[in-house]
Write a structure and sequence with these properties.
Blueprint: E1 7-11, H1 16-27, E2 31-35, H2 39-51, E3 55-58, H3 66-80, E4 85-88, H4 103-132, E5 135-140, H5 153-173, E6 178-185, H6 191-196, H7 199-208, H8 217-228, E7 239-242, H9 246-249
Parallel strand pairs: 1-2, 1-4, 2-3, 4-5, 5-6, 6-7
Helix pairs in contact: 1-8, 3-4, 4-5
């Protein structure tokens, strides 16, 4: 068990990549706190992990609400006493031509995808990682953190910003023995993707991936596990693409 007795927080952990990470962390011996805006999903995920013999609690909350984030951090500290790993995974996606984006929609995407990551990192850093001189933070960006698909300007802007945030935190917090890295997933077959993407779109995307298939959440989780473990003990500030090679062929003209 490569994460035995480590305490990990996963935001957006009620489904998709977040749930897969929570499950693999628990399997590898971590005590996991699962955050999700959907309290039902967070509780279900924690219950399933406990039923499998793992140690998990649910901490529902909105990552864009700094007071709620601070409250969630206190919950974890009260229950486990420290936080060793933070997987900043919560995020949202809105599609709209740039000229039609509403102010409230722009602010919502930025507040969840960027503010939420900073609020959680800062709160965990202050409460546990900096005082303990130990921690591992993995932020979720996207292929859209490097290239610009059409009609998702708020998402692209937020994900580019997460790459910069990761580099800044890696630079500033390395002195505290806190490693900060970034996962950039390619198209991953989660329930949300299946619900929101037409089958013909997925089929077309699959053909363009150099590996000729799309990713599953467990493959993303394995990459996160590497960044959260001591197997990556000298990895700091890494922006890791887990996209089957898609970014190598990607251009702003593709969606």
């Amino acid at each position: 068990m490569i994460l035995k007795d480590e305490v990990a927080v996963i935001t957006g952990g009620g489904g998709g990549i977040g749930l897969a990470v929570a499950q693999v962390f628990a399997k590898e011996g971590a005590k996991v706190a699962i955050n999700d805006l959907n309290a039902e999903l967070a509780n279900k995920a924690a219950q399933e992990i406990r039923a499998s013999g793992g140690d998990a609690i649910a901490i529902p909350g909105d990552v864009s609400d700094v007071k709620q984030v601070q409250s969630n951090v206190r919950e974890v500290m009260d229950h486990y006493g420290r936080i060793d790993i933070l997987f900043n995974n919560a995020g949202i996606y809105m599609a709209c031509p740039a000229e039609l984006v509403k102010v409230e929609d722009w602010r919502k995407v930025i507040s969840v995808n960027l503010d939420g990551i900073f609020f959680w990192a800062q709160a965990v850093g202050q409460a546990s990682m900096i005082p303990n001189r130990y921690g591992k933070i993995i932020n979720t960006s996207s292929m859209a953190g490097f290239a610009a698909p059409q009609n998702v300007i708020s998402y692209v802007s937020s994900k580019h910003a997460v790459v910069g945030l990761t580099k800044s935190l890696a630079l500033e917090w390395g002195k505290y023995n806190i490693r900060v890295n970034c996962l950039c997933p390619g198209m991953t077959i989660t329930p949300l993707v299946r619900k929101t993407q037409k089958s013909e779109v997925l089929a077309s995307r699959e053909k363009r991936v150099p590996l000729r298939r799309l990713c599953n959440p467990e493959e993303q989780a394995n990459a996160v596990l590497f960044l959260a473990s001591e197997q990556s003990s000298f990895v700091n500030g890494l922006i890791m693409n887990v996209d089957g090679g898609m970014l190598s062929a990607f251009s702003g003209n593709e969606t």
